[in-house]
Amino acid sequence: MEYLEIIGGNRLSGEVYINGAKNAAVAMLPAALAANDVCVLENLPHIEDVLTLVEALGKMGAICKFIDPHTLVIDSRGLSSHHAHYESVRKTRASYYLVGVLLGRFGKAEVVLPGGCNFGTRPIDQHIKGFAALGANVKIEDGMIIAHADKLTGANIYLDVVSVGATINIMLAAIYARGTTVIENAAKEPHVVDTANFLNAMGAQIKGAGTDVIRIAGVDRLKGAEYMIIPDQIEAGTYLIAGAITGGEITVRNIIPKHMESITAKLHEMNCRIDEGDDFITLSVPNGKLHSTNIKTMTYPGFPTDLQPQMTALLCTTNGTGIITETIWENRFQYINELKRLGCRVTVEGRVASVEGGKPLTGSEAFATDLRAGAALVIAGLAAEGRTLVGNVKYIDRGYEDLVSKLSNLGAQIRRVWVED
Q1: Residue 329 DSSP label
Q2: Beta strands at 249-253 and 226-228: parallel, antiparallel or unpaired
Q3: What CATH number matches the domain at 22-228, 3.30.70.100, 3.30.70.20, 3.65.10.10, 3.40.120.10?
Q4: Which CATH number is 2-19+231-418's, of 1.10.10.10, 3.40.50.720, 1.20.1730.10, 3.65.10.10?
Q5: Neighbouring C-beta atoms of residue 185, cutoff 10 Å
Q6: With pLDDT > 70 as the criterion, what percentage of the chain qualifies?
């Protein structure tokens, strides 16, 4: 089995360049199919989730060609099928965006139910509610999402819960609906805004992205577009936390500091020094001592759930006890038992975790249970005494490009190793 081997105790320092946002990229790849034309996506992260979706698009008839590792040309003029039955579709949660885009373009869609990280029930009822409001008949049958509409018509849609996936999926379907669609209680995450901006570059008429009310005026056709994806706030936050846990001084570049405010505010509370520029943030730990803090995950602009595991790892090393409240996913704490292998002292009751810091961590063997949990184990390993082996590397590869080389360049002692079962 492949592992990441980490020898802890090295202080991180230097600069790291942040790639394009995973959560934006996996929405824009399906969105590119909305136009019967050619699109170019730049600043595309070269990660497994992206490569899996590119494979799926190719099997559906789109011609996808990488100009370089981070620039992809997508020609969907040969796309003629509304079917997406492939195993590559099943591998990533974001493939459910194919339902919205195929429903909008063809008036019908048959997409295999997606997979992705398993950290709790993630229903698509709000997606189905939105499609139905637009006039589609939707059912789940034999592991497939099947949607059909003779005509899509704009509607007022109130989301019962704030959902990034439902917000984007409804946008994708509504761009071709007759009349105006209004999504209320919409998600405001940066990647929602970025997807809307990409669609607008293609000729859609979407207003209000980034607020809780989005209005989409239906159009007859879209054209191809060239678009650069925003930087990944979660990748940037992961490296900032890695710098903090080692008492280091690192600079993350190619970022939008405003997207990072909920993260940098908490790190500042913990006694980190934060210096910002137009497209970078520098973190340092002035006296090497960090204080605990309390965190509650929320939809944007609150603290992101995708950085909760990494922050939990950091809290295991700080002075005092921190409280983490998870409001997004009911089973996101399933990785805690793996953190405990390294000596972390965490007690979980429902959606609340109490993290007792101040005790040195010790290297051990642990296994990633999902993408961000894998990052948390790596971060804990950077601070642990001795050797840590992190298994299930496939989860980490889904969302982090060149993690080993980037951490190595910052001074970490980390490498990929193969250990016989």
Answers
A1: -
A2: unpaired
A3: 3.65.10.10
A4: 3.65.10.10
A5: 17
A6: 98
Phi–psi pair at 341, nearest 5 degrees:
-60, -25
5 with 415: CB under 8 angstroms?
yes
3-state secondary structure at position 264: helix
Q: How far apart are CA 363 and CA 384, in angstroms?
A: 5
* Cis previous bond, 301, omega within 30: yes
Backbone angles phi, psi at 367, to 5 degrees: -125, 130
Please name which of 313, 261, 315 lies closest in space to residue 290, comparing C-alpha atoms: 315
b/e 336-350 (16+ beta carbons within 10 angstroms → b): bebbebbbbebeeee
Inter-CA distances, 217 with 155, 156, 161, 317, Å: 10, 12, 23, 51
Q: How confident is the model at residue 83 (pLDDT cuts 50, 70, 90)?
A: confident
Tokens linked to 264: 């940098």
pLDDT at 195 > cutoff 80: yes
Q: Is the pLDDT of residue 415 over 90?
A: yes
Beta strands at 213-217 and 205-207: parallel, antiparallel or unpaired:
antiparallel
Q: What is the DSSP letter of 384?
A: S
Q: What is the location of CATH 3.65.10.10 in the chain?
A: 2-19+231-418, 22-228
Q: What is the pLDDT of residues 326-370, one digit of tens each?
A: 999 888 999 999 999 999 999 999 999 999 999 999 999 999 999
φ/ψ of residue 188, rounded to 5: -115, 10
What pLDDT, in 10s, does the model give residues 382-413? Answer: 999 999 999 999 999 999 999 999 999 999 99
Cα–Cα distance for residue pair 212/299, rounded to 1 Å: 11
Catalytic residues: 117
Average pLDDT value over all residues in the chain: 95
Give the whole-angstrom CA distance, residue 116 versus residue 309: 17
Top pLDDT among 205 and 81 is at 205
Cα distances (angstroms) measured from residue 318 to each of 10, 288, 348, 410: 17, 10, 18, 22
CA distances for 63 relative to 33, 56, 70, 77, angstroms: 11, 11, 16, 8
